[in-house]
Amino acid sequence: MPTRAPSRPVGTVTRGTTNPNRLRRMDRWISAVHGAELRRTADPVAVDLGYGAAPWTAVELLHRLRSTAPRTRVVGVEIEPARVAAAQPYTREGLLFRHGGFEVPVPGRPSLIRAANVLRQYEEGEVTAVWERLCARLAPADPVTGSRGGLLVEGTCDEIGRRHVWVALGPEGPRTVTFATRLGSLGRPSDLAERLPKALIHRNVPGEPVHAFLRDFDRAWAAAAPFAAYGARQRWVRTVRDLAADWPVTDGPARWRQGEVTVAWRALSPRR
What we know:
Elements: H1 24-40, E1 45-49, H2 56-66, E2 73-78, H3 81-87, E3 95-99, E4 112-116, H4 124-137, E5 151-157, E6 163-170, E7 173-181, H5 198-201, H6 209-223, H7 232-243, H8 253-256, E8 260-264, H9 265-268
Parallel strand pairs: 1-2, 1-4, 2-3, 4-5
Antiparallel strand pairs: 5-6, 6-7, 7-8
Helix pairs in contact: 1-2, 6-7
């Protein structure tokens, strides 16, 4: 019988730019909110999808997740074969690299897929189909154990990881949007608008929920100016506390003090 040709990876080659520690804010959040799920999974597998021209982010993801869930394994997936070959010297116990794309070529269902700065070059109309494809690969929810299933984290950050916005999705679809920043570099919350993920960045216009959210965020930040005397962190915490009166903020002060705020997706979802 003829040998079946391997299927072509789904997706297109990205620019591949990356830097050490670029995704530290996203990794820190994943460890905090998804660590318990990884710990109770028998064989937790995390996928660093589109890690880029160098494997730093996959190496760092393994280190950070294992500090929370020691049995976690990481698979770096890249659509460019040369990048996969270049990453092989970094292979170690718990860390592998594979050629592939949105089909996520790993056995079984991953507990985590992280896709950072991958959809930036795609059209807005392509995002939903990619999300659906990736969510279908996640470990399913299990009502018996109380598991919510796997997690897809998809978002965008600047080149050195100071500003980051990401969407978290489960097998059922989008759950939340998280804004994270190095507070010392922030002029006002709407500075994060340039890092909105593809599903939202073109929706930052009057009449869209994300535009209204950033407007209210800036107003709350301005009202909290007196707290700047106690530092940028105290000003941010006060700002988010006030913002939560009108928007469905899903986290609390422990995360706010990290320069984060997470909001229910339904509140920022684009109008069609």
